[in-house]
């Protein structure tokens, strides 16, 4: 029967009749499969739409977005990003998709690309609440990481003024310098968050005793500076459950 129909169309074309109408691509099975959360059916049905060169652009975008959202729900992140990226090339006005792709970049640990996508969503729609919240959170996180990198390998004190052998040893080791800075910050935090002035004074005295003991013991046989510093940091972090 299909052959007969094709022959009839060809016959009309050969005799100068009306040209054969181009068959419309049916996107409904793709949308139904993604709505039903059926990855297997959606892969096939949406693939038929996406891979067909005759698919209209709006339907192609819908199929890519629908399949991408389904893949994202099933943690197929790279495939979802690929679908969203292709959809955005076709229609770069989709703020929701920029935000969705940004969240996927974040899952992959690519913070710069995530921030870039959240920013793109906000440029399209400045009132996009999720994109605004995501962009703010990531900007703060990048600022925090930048601050950490700026002080990485630097202790809590000024190495130019280091006089003690133990201080010079700390300044000469990025690992020990980081430990010193973390100990200083943790001690300040637990002291600040103490439940009473008396408890705060006790905590500060413990820190002073640790520094005094470190200074006195460094260089003596059997004294392990790195171990002593790690033990102190662990004790501080255990004080308030951090």
Commentary on this structure:
The chain is mainly α and 242 residues long. The protein contains 12 helices and no strands. The termini are far apart. The N terminus is likely disordered.
Write the layout of secondary structure elements.
Elements: H1 2-14, H2 28-35, H3 39-50, H4 57-73, H5 77-90, H6 95-107, H7 111-124, H8 129-151, H9 165-171, H10 174-192, H11 197-217, H12 225-239
Quick recap of the structure?
With 242 residues, the chain is mostly helical. Helices cover 73% and strands 0% of the residues.
How many strands?
A: 0
Shape summary: elongated
Gyration radius, in Å: 31 Å
Structural class: mainly alpha
Notable traits:
mainly alpha, disordered N terminus, 242 residues, 12 helices, 73% helix, single chain
């Amino acid at each position: 029967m299909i052959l007969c129909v094709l022959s009839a169309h060809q016959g009309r074309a050969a005799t100068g009749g009306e040209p054969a109408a181009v068959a419309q691509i049916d996107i409904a099975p793709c949308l139904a499969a993604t709505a039903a959360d059926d990855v297997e059916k959606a892969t096939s049905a949406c693939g038929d739409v996406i891979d067909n060169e005759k698919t209209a652009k709006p339907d192609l975008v819908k199929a890519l977005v629908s399949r991408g959202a389904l893949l994202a729900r099933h943690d197929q992140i790279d495939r979802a990003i690929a679908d969203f990226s292709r959809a955005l090339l076709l229609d770069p006005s989709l703020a929701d998709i920029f935000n969705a792709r940004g969240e996927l970049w974040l899952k992959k640990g690519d913070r710069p690309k995530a921030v870039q996508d959240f920013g793109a969503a906000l440029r399209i729609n400045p009132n996009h609440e999720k994109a605004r919240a995501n962009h703010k959170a990531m900007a703060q996180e990048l600022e925090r990481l930048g601050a950490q990198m700026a002080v990485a390998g630097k202790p809590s004190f000024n190495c130019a003024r280091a006089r003690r052998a133990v201080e010079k040893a700390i300044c000469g080791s990025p690992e020990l310098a980081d430990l010193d800075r973390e100990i200083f910050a943790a001690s300040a935090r637990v002291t600040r968050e103490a439940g009473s002035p008396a408890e705060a004074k006790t905590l500060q005295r413990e820190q002073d005793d640790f520094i005094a003991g470190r200074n006195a013991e460094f260089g003596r046989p059997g004294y392990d500076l790195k171990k002593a510093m790690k033990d102190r940091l662990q004790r501080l972090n255990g004080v308030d459950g951090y």
